[in-house]
From TrEMBL:
Family matches, as CDD domains: SufS_like
Gene3D superfamilies membership: Aspartate Aminotransferase, domain 1 (3.90.1150.10), Type I PLP-dependent aspartate aminotransferase-like (Major domain) (3.40.640.10)
UniProt protein name: Cysteine desulfurase
Enzyme class: transferase
């Protein structure tokens, strides 16, 4: 059982929540877009700039050494959060500008391998006509588009796992979709629209059975669930710091060490090259440096490490249990006449992300009505148009919880939602 945590005290650590919007206390239910930051994370970033700001891995002076140590300590803390602990010198976590950047890095690197770059070791990532790339209809555009473009560039066939009626990724026909020709499978861990937790174990098993690489979009799982990439046996995974209470502008790409060592680089410049010449091919550094060209978001990585440590101190089990209570209240939106929930109605194998449609009222009008009462939710297609088409819609409204939310926050949204259709005369 999860340990008892004072979540009211935790909420008080978020200074942004201590304000009013349109004359109402702020209720922030848009954590799936970006989570708010506790004071310790805000302080960590500012403290770095005040005390040890310097370039990392490139200076012999004291500030550079201290900055490098802080940067690598931040990486190590995040690695512990997601079960990516590795032996010293064998890191499995690459710093990126975000999950989108990490997924594009992979797609670009696979494309480079398809052109013959990276030598013999990189051939395992190469794609050609007749090979297959598989995603799901539930994917965020940051998964869908990079691998769709990779298919275009290499001539590979682009396929997808379809959805159940309530928006879960189907696993009953894996043998039909993931075949001996499949080389890459990329699937979301938690749907950013439905909040549904994907049953990824059989998908991973099937992918590995046919020799395919499995890539996990962990953006919506790392902030809300206890995640262990080693235990899951994923080959690669991408997630963003700003959704796990850390800063914007930084994310992480996990890769099994042996795969990172074989993967050719995707971005080029300073800090990722061992030897550069005018008249012969460059020799690139070992990972993760090979994939970290240019100046890194050092202060943000330091602060992301603080966020990871802060989450671990609370306990991921406690966070999941707390947010399950929020989800139960948000799901009551579906009890309101004229409101349909997009995704599972049962509070089982899902997180506190609930998208809904209000009959006869445009999502943007819903969002403005809700905002006028001090409640922040997301409106639009949430960068996931195919799953909206699955539900016969182009856009929806989405409420998504974080560790700082209360049952009362969810109840405030439900009460506000009861007046939407009457207000608009729907």
């Amino acid at each position: 059982m999860a340990k008892m945590i004072d979540f009211d005290k935790i909420r008080a650590e978020f200074p942004i929540l201590d304000q009013q919007v349109h004359g109402h206390p702020l209720v922030y239910l848009d954590s799936a877009a970006t989570a708010q930051k506790p004071q310790c994370v805000i302080d960590a970033e500012a403290e770095f700039y005040r005390t040890i700001n310097a370039g990392v891995h490139r200076g012999a002076h004291e500030l550079a050494a201290r900055a490098t140590m802080a940067f690598e300590d931040g990486r190590a803390k995040v690695a512990r959060l997601v079960g990516a602990n590795a032996a010293e010198g064998e890191e499995e976590l690459v710093v990126t500008a975000g999950a989108t950047a990490g997924l594009n890095l992979l797609a670009t690197a696979f494309g480079n391998a398809s052109l013959g770059r990276g030598g013999q070791a990189a051939k395992r990532f190469a794609l050609q006509p007749g090979d297959e790339i598989v995603v799901s209809r539930a994917e965020h555009h940051s998964v869908l588009l990079p691998f769709q473009e990779l298919a275009y560039r290499t001539g590979a066939t682009f396929k997808w796992l379809d959805l159940t009626e309530d928006g879960r990724v189907r696993t009953d026909n894996l043998d039909e979709v993931i075949t001996e020709r499949t080389k890459v499978v990329a699937v979301t861990h938690v749907g950013n629209t439905t909040g549904a937790i994907t049953d990824i174990a059989p998908i991973i098993a099937r992918a590995h059975a046919v020799g395919a690489l499995f890539i996990l979009d962990a953006c919506q799982s790392v902030p809300h669930l206890k995640v262990d990439f080693h235990a899951l046996d994923v080959d690669f995974a991408a997630f963003s710091a700003h959704k796990m209470y850390g800063p914007t502008g930084v994310g992480f790409l996990y890769g099994k060490r042996e795969l990172l060592e074989a993967l050719p680089p995707a971005n080029f410049g300073g800090s990722m090259v061992e030897l550069a010449y005018m008249d012969q091919e460059a020799q690139y550094m070992a990972p993760p440096a090979r994939f970290e060209a240019g100046t890194q978001p050092v202060a943000q990585v330091v602060a992301a490490g603080v966020a990871a440590e802060w989450m671990m101190n609370i306990g991921l089990d406690a966070i999941e249990e707390h947010e399950r209570g929020i989800a139960a209240e948000l799901l009551k939106l579906g009890d309101i006449d004229g409101i349909r929930i997009l995704g599972p109605r049962e509070n089982v194998n899902r997180i506190g992300t609930v998208a809904f449609d209000v009959a006869g009222v445009h999502p943007h009008d819903v969002g403005q009505y809700i905002d006028a009462q001090g409640i922040a939710i997301r409106v639009g297609h949430h960068c996931a148009q195919p799953i909206h088409r699955h539900f016969g819609l182009y856009a929806s409204n989405r409420a998504s919880s974080g560790v700082y939310n209360t049952v009362e926050d969810a109840q405030a949204l439900v009460e506000a939602a009861k007046g939407i259709r009457k207000f608009f005369g729907a």
